[in-house]
Amino acid sequence: xxxxxxxxxxxxxxxxxxxxxxxxxxxxxxxxxxxxxxxxxxxxxxxxxxxxxxxxxxxxxxxxxxxxxxxxxxxxxxxxxxxxxxxxxxxxxxxxxxxxxxxxxxxxxxxxxxxxxxxxxxxxxxxxxxxxxxxxxxxxxxxxxxxxxxxxxxxxxxxxxxxxxxxxxxxxxxxxxxxxxxxxxxxxxxxxxxxxxxxxxxxxxxxxxxxxxxxxxxxxxxxxxxxxxxxxxxxxxxxxxxxxxxxxx
Length: 249
What we know:
Layout: H1 2-7, E1 18-23, E2 29-33, H2 41-48, H3 53-72, E3 75-76, E4 85-87, E5 94-96, E6 103-104, H4 139-156, H5 169-181, H6 183-186, H7 190-199, H8 210-215
Antiparallel strand pairs: 1-2, 3-6, 4-5
Helix pairs in contact: 3-4, 4-7
């Protein structure tokens, strides 16, 4: 019930719409959500693929738009991963779903955000500060970290590490090489490279907020698709293309 009440109050193009709450024949509560025929971002990344880098950038910008919106109303998702990001039937409009581990960090009556504690999400996408049980963390910053991991996964079809702990050899290597130039980031153009470097800053104080990312030189210039509320189809012409699932069949 609380999840339905919360998710049904969020209305944004890049958030899956919650339509209704019904009871099935077994008395179980079922949340009815907007149908998105494009599948999830994990399948898109690993099986369908992308037509060009601009398609990846478009979807990443839409991800930032959606996350930025929930942050603006005082909510952190805390389980951002490709499996919780889906596409509409056109394959152009990205939507965030599954708010089961989300949390309110600022109510409408509060001016200051409060920190949270506890480990939530899927290990490869969890920010390093969440693993520190002795300290609270800034909830918006853990979502930023997850966006960075997702962006790298879209670009490379791989994950950087299993878990962001020094005990993970890949994460330990990242910490060692990050300040002198991390090779896996340097293979990309300056814009994406800088975004990856800032989103995946192990220090949450230095890590930017979503709004700061969107206002940045490169992200602010990304061409992204906008869908009509009634049809989901793009409402403005764009130069890039989107690879549809059917084109792989």
